[in-house]
Amino acid sequence: MSTTHLGMPSFPRAAHDAVRDTRLRANLRHATHTIRDKRAKAVAELADWAQLREAGRQIKDHTLRHLDRYLVQLEESVTAAGGTVHWAADAAEANRIVAGLVRATGHREVVKVKSMATQEIGLNEALEAEGIAAYETDLAELIVQLGDDRPSHILVPAIHRNRGEIRDIFRREMAAWGRPAPEGLGDTPAELAEAARLHLREKFLRAKVGVSGANFMVAETGTMVVLESEGNGRMCLTLPETLISVVGIEKVVPSWRDLEVFLQTLPRSSTAERMNPYTSMWTGTSPGDGPQVFHLVLLDNGRTDTLADEVGRQALRCIRCSACLNVCPVYERVGGHAYGSVYPGPIGAILSPQLRGTGSEIDASLPYASSLCGACYDVCPVAIDIPEVLVHLRERVVQGGDVTRDGVKATIKPAKGHAAERMAMRAARWALDHPAALRAGERLAYRTRRIHPRRLPGPGRAWSATRELPELPAESFRDWWQRTRSEGRTT
Length: 491
Fold this sequence. Notes:
With 491 residues, this protein is of the alpha/beta class. It contains 23 helices and 12 strands. Strands 1-10-7-4-2-3 form a 6-stranded parallel sheet, sandwiched between helices. It has a 4-stranded mixed sheet with strand order 8-5-6-9. The longest helix is centred in the first third of the chain and has 23 residues, at 22-44. It is globular. Residues 1-7 and 402-406 have low confidence and may be disordered.
């Protein structure tokens, strides 16, 4: 059995097992339906939502077209404001930079704001290997960390857990990480939140180093922006003496005017809130106010290669709202772990294979983890046409070919298991190029319809095992058209 980068099986195998977990499916169904319904109501309140969505798309596309210029401007602005900018080509380089910066402070623990970029590069594991403890402070991330688990959702990483499971994790694990859970801890939201608050408080007050990501970076001023709902981010971003932010290069926006659009669309698309509860912004360092040392690590890790793909680059518009996950029928049934990436759901199915390449079995399977229903595109606040990119990546997987990863040209072999599909497509092309042969095949098909099997043989067995073959009519469309047209002429 092949494994993913996180030790998970390939998507088909993981999905097969996940759909049999009735408790997982119940948790996911309840959570995703609740979030999607609230989001729909929040979005419906804005009469200009379509215009905001289009504005977000245009801002992101413009920025990506001129990314080199805006990144240089961002570096100049951050440096002028007292920060230090580091460039990381890949995960290994980013982890080395962050570990080195933490070691230089003389401290051996950090508090973290929820960050997809640091999860992407495996920063917690890299710091642990260097003897540095990284404490997650977001409630859902805390649950995942204490449970020795993996995130399964972009916005709600512990969406696969119910309250009883969370209570048991707190009771069992909190003491090993710091302050233990209160005696007699119940499973009400208030009790669980209070237990987490007490557990984290001592870490906030003790930590000298904070690590964060950023939802947006404003190029004109060098301002970092973090949106969160619990206040833990505000604590991590203001109390430590040193702050290190790891941010993907695609998160830059040109100006404050551009930022205003996303401050409207992100909260409604993610948490169904009209306004984000905690929006933290900082520009470099200020004497006597907040961290006195600020480092920004700009992360590439496959983003430049993704930018070179004219179809796939639209995935870099993503603002990590997770709306696509909450409406996806595939995600709802299999959960996030099946995707073998910190980016699950529809956006993960197109983002992970581009950031990591389609050379592994898991990444080659992800573009097929979709029904192509289009619900993800309908709710995306920056209009990413996920179905279009999925089909594009499927073509890449089937055809193989030359790609460039991290500046190195390599050849990807066509994925195994697609030989029959390629043969079928070639046969279809030949038939469509020869009308006489196509006509003869159609007539043969409907004249022999009574003896057709109910299940396909060979490679087609997997398809027909869960579907009924369509019944052929007594007359082909071609013959019907010719007959009715000739009858119309005679009358």
